[in-house]
Amino acid sequence: MTDIVRVDGRTTDQLRPVTIERGWSDQAEGSALISFGRTKVLCTASFTNGVPRWMAGKGKGWVTAEYSMLPRSTDSRMDRESVKGRIGGRTHEISRLVGRSLRAVVDMKALGENTIVLDCDVLQADGGTRTAAITGAYVALADALEWGREKKFLSQKAQPLIDSVSAISVGIVGGVPMLDLAYVEDSKAETDMNVVVTGRGLFVEVQGTAEGAPFDRQELNSLLDLALAGTVSLTEFQKTALGR
Amino acid sequence: MTDIVRVDGRTTDQLRPVTIERGWSDQAEGSALISFGRTKVLCTASFTNGVPRWMAGKGKGWVTAEYSMLPRSTDSRMDRESVKGRIGGRTHEISRLVGRSLRAVVDMKALGENTIVLDCDVLQADGGTRTAAITGAYVALADALEWGREKKFLSQKAQPLIDSVSAISVGIVGGVPMLDLAYVEDSKAETDMNVVVTGRGLFVEVQGTAEGAPFDRQELNSLLDLALAGTVSLTEFQKTALGR
Amino acid sequence: MTDIVRVDGRTTDQLRPVTIERGWSDQAEGSALISFGRTKVLCTASFTNGVPRWMAGKGKGWVTAEYSMLPRSTDSRMDRESVKGRIGGRTHEISRLVGRSLRAVVDMKALGENTIVLDCDVLQADGGTRTAAITGAYVALADALEWGREKKFLSQKAQPLIDSVSAISVGIVGGVPMLDLAYVEDSKAETDMNVVVTGRGLFVEVQGTAEGAPFDRQELNSLLDLALAGTVSLTEFQKTALGR
Amino acid sequence: MTDIVRVDGRTTDQLRPVTIERGWSDQAEGSALISFGRTKVLCTASFTNGVPRWMAGKGKGWVTAEYSMLPRSTDSRMDRESVKGRIGGRTHEISRLVGRSLRAVVDMKALGENTIVLDCDVLQADGGTRTAAITGAYVALADALEWGREKKFLSQKAQPLIDSVSAISVGIVGGVPMLDLAYVEDSKAETDMNVVVTGRGLFVEVQGTAEGAPFDRQELNSLLDLALAGTVSLTEFQKTALGR
Amino acid sequence: MTDIVRVDGRTTDQLRPVTIERGWSDQAEGSALISFGRTKVLCTASFTNGVPRWMAGKGKGWVTAEYSMLPRSTDSRMDRESVKGRIGGRTHEISRLVGRSLRAVVDMKALGENTIVLDCDVLQADGGTRTAAITGAYVALADALEWGREKKFLSQKAQPLIDSVSAISVGIVGGVPMLDLAYVEDSKAETDMNVVVTGRGLFVEVQGTAEGAPFDRQELNSLLDLALAGTVSLTEFQKTALGR
Amino acid sequence: MTDIVRVDGRTTDQLRPVTIERGWSDQAEGSALISFGRTKVLCTASFTNGVPRWMAGKGKGWVTAEYSMLPRSTDSRMDRESVKGRIGGRTHEISRLVGRSLRAVVDMKALGENTIVLDCDVLQADGGTRTAAITGAYVALADALEWGREKKFLSQKAQPLIDSVSAISVGIVGGVPMLDLAYVEDSKAETDMNVVVTGRGLFVEVQGTAEGAPFDRQELNSLLDLALAGTVSLTEFQKTALGR
């Protein structure tokens, strides 16, 4: 799989350079500026004591997420969704994906009646923005939970984080399964798949789409192999960023 | 897998009763009222000669879809999205899924500069509405294409349909992989997966989500096995409905 | 008036075939799929114990209605109002008309602090959708009230229904007053009138509009005669459907 | 009918004082500030040479209307529809009614490819705002048509106005049919009816609603008698205002 | 400065004719129809006992404002913001300006937990609508406060009004600083400035904008001189209107 | 003025540390990440050949701006305007201010039929976001114009930039005029003023608002002195960033 040279010189199973600037924001309870190559996403976690009214009194917390792209994060400028007055389907879809992915590693009972909102704003986009968002949001989340513990909104022994979580894109480009597609690869992929995996190696989401040509079982398996290996690396980056 | 008895007496690998009323609508160029058990979806296909302005002149067609639920298709009444003034994320997500799934089996060149809009309106919901929508929309689409051929918007030898497509949900409920979840099963599933498969057995979409607990590779494989078998049956229902 | 033959062979004072499928929905507390010829409207009644906050504590109930058309209920596809992000004037107008019409036969004191929402969704449209909606909604409403009585949300002796109600369109087409206009007649009518009448023969709404040419008092009287006769028949269909 | 004394001392068949200030606006091609008692509506007619694109090339014109209330035109302040971001059903309904009423007296062929927009803004509301709006809009319309003739957008011999039009409310209050309801009467009326009548005495719209109790044929006839007499007077006020 | 003759014959430091019809509305607690030449703004003040929930319990009141233009207040018709479904930036900006300006002369403690909403609706526009709105709104506000005192919502000795406030536009047109620009002057001004001044001669707002050419310190000073003189006159008109 | 010590140790006439990272974005034709202390704004300039249709054929260009804040740029999280479905008044106001400020230094004739959109997204907010936005946007604009020249959308000798522009806030806090207010100062200022000044020292905008107490002429003059001195420094930062 490794003698095909990709547009940026990577092997097919190689991630782009990953950086995680933990604590980028002075304001948020947790934050990370993550980059997968040229893709840069600012992830903040806002911790609020209390839950929405419809959830109150159940002793459980809530984690939700919002994803958005700056208008000129892309090669040609997009209109702002605030100006259009409505959020597009893609934005909705990714916000929901990020929220579900992070909720999968949080024990809502242990969180108690606290709410965490994860904001993932894409400052620069070059493919893989949703997977970078999930991977960075985990770091922000972990810090916000620590903040909540320091502020006594969480008890000292509460363990709301039951695992870590990261995500990566894989796809079939020109017949070849590849890891972590850059935009130019993604736009010509026959099949594109986003895979969300916990630190222990379990699947949270598998979202495969045949953009160009339907795929068979063997291709699916190759993509899953790549994704599992990629998320092992991302988990290491997260641990390093968090100083663990 | 077959000695567990489900809430409605099915085995774990059994579909609910499927019916397809082809040509339900007097108005649309193609239509089908499909039911998966108590789930009923009215699918219509609207054929328009011509394409949106931004696509004109390329000799290619366009297929798109919109999904919606009647406010009292569910057990308790939902507010209408038209009244709320905005479409929710779930609706967007499913509309996009249906559209992508049907486009995967259409040769846009062979369709020529024609547009087909698939409307999938859920009249009654009991789990699996998106998979019923895709399966029924295929029947409506096939008829709309025949209509276009009769009206000479398509040439006699054009073959825009390159395959058939159907979809089914699978999930892990109480630790057991099951086919075609009813609402009561879906709402307690640890993992829920929607799989879109062509008549030839290739994947178009694999959308697995760990609602309750992350899943491992073996569970993923069991779910895919169930889904592939289920879509073989659905393909037969489609053929029968279309008289082929 | 009876020797003019209409487009579908009816006499000028003849209704189209009327069918009422009571209890079409498994989910709603009351429901009816009504057809006036090719016009088909699914009417559901949702019973909720309690009233909106601004009405609470007055010992009175509330009945409201929402009307909508499926995008391909008509000959050429209409855009969805949810997609446009706003409800059109016609939809608003008819929703309000249906709500007022049903409220006219409900004793809000006897209903107690309960709310009934009537949803009238047009599955297929061929003229007279609003009158079919009112006529079918009455059947759904009656069943929802029975449901409320069984569930003890209404006392055994409460009589919230003070009369029945139905509605029919009339119009002047080519100078001739006619009952129950099909779409092709409606679209060329000089005057179009919708009349809502109780089972006892009293008017709830008279909405006459000169689309083409203003009308005189004698024409108005002919239209009212036709409408009163038509609603007598509709009342019988309702009684039969309800098994009374 | 005349020995019942109403809240403001009128007889049951008496209009409130009517004033029409023609040409109130310096900007509009036609305008009138009309009052029915304390109800004051500013009506402007905006004449534009040309028609919307979808109407072009047919040699016909277009007349449309928009109705709105100032937030403090009423006894307690209402939220602005612009602030709420959506137009309410009542506003839509009345805008459509005003538009249809004025179109009923315009020959669109004679108008040629010109557009007239009638804006009816309620400055103060005390019942009968929609009927005052129609009555005043006619005066503004007539002046805008003269303006169009002077500017040569209409030929010298074109006669786009085929009749005049005015409107009045009638209702049954405490069992008694009454003309031109003030707000305090309207709010307790059993039945409320708005009637739009041409200068020649033909009906354009008859919109009767049983707010409190259904009405019988005889009551309907009494209301129509009152309305026809009232619009004869209004027609005179219009003629005087227009100096005819 | 006085030998330049302006389009309407005024000197450069001369206001247009000002009229203030106090109590124009029968409904509002305070109102004024103000005109600056052809510019006419209807200002109403709505007094409500109580404050929005988020302000309750602090013993303080609230004053806010909304500004809007009728669609045909201008030379060519504008679309309604309610129809467009969104409020434009200019409307927002002016509403906020009017609100801030009036709040600057109200002692919120002395107002107590009462709310006043100022609605400024432009009936006819010829430049200076925002300054007329502020000047007229003050008169409406003063009357609404008196109403609140009479109704005992304010104590007899409470003095919520700590000063009066008025506003005027100034600008540089053809190199010459001028007071109270009419529309035709405003549209060709190099610099346009709106100045809000209290009765005691203190600034509340200074909003200068170089539409055509940046301005220097000396020009700024000339404009401020003109504005201060103009607001002295406006203060007199307010006093006269209020009978003080 | 210099012996008062401010919250962060500055003198009253001292700017916070200013940094300008020119070319922060790989995608935009011009960009700058500017910081005024903890306030960070990402400014991008998008150059498009051509102008909106309503401007075409006049040989002139267009410059416009959009300002927005990330939801967690502030101390407590704000709802996204895209989620609320409408843009707030403050956002509108600042977007318009930024656009006007930059247009003041562009010769639209020299720009030719090209459009530049300036996006100013606040990543972190600590007072002065609008002034940082204007100051940074100028740098992005200058680079985008160079890009346009290289791409031959501008002729070699065209000089669209007629001056530079920067902006700073000033205010009276505790009776003392101060330069470049941090959030904690701004929120307790009696008067707050934003001043936009060209490189040559001419005013483009003067926006002074008495949030707490009206101000007199002398205070206004002190504020303008501070602002003029501050913008001289900002002009130097801009020159350095642009390598001039």
UniProtKB/TrEMBL annotation, chains A, B, C, D, E, F:
Cited PROSITE patterns: RIBONUCLEASE_PH (PS01277)
Q: Domain of life, per the record?
A: Bacteria
Chain ranges passing through the membrane = none
Where along the chain is phosphate bound? R90, G128, T129, R130
Q: What is its EC number?
A: 2.7.7.56
Question: What is the main EC category here?
Answer: transferase
The UniProt entry, under Pfam families, shows: RNase_PH, RNase_PH_C
Alphabetic keyword roster:
Nucleotidyltransferase, RNA-binding, rRNA processing, Transferase, tRNA processing, tRNA-binding
Record field: catalytic activity: tRNA(n+1) + phosphate = tRNA(n) + a ribonucleoside 5'-diphosphate
GO terms under biological process? rRNA 3'-end processing; rRNA catabolic process; tRNA processing
Q: Which residues form the Exoribonuclease phosphorolytic domain?
A: 14-144, 164-229
Entry's family note: Belongs to the RNase PH family.
> How would you summarize the oligomeric state and partners of this protein?
Homohexameric ring arranged as a trimer of dimers.
Question: Per its record, how is this protein called by name?
Answer: Ribonuclease PH
What lineage does the source organism belong to? Bacteria, Bacillati, Actinomycetota, Actinomycetes, Micrococcales
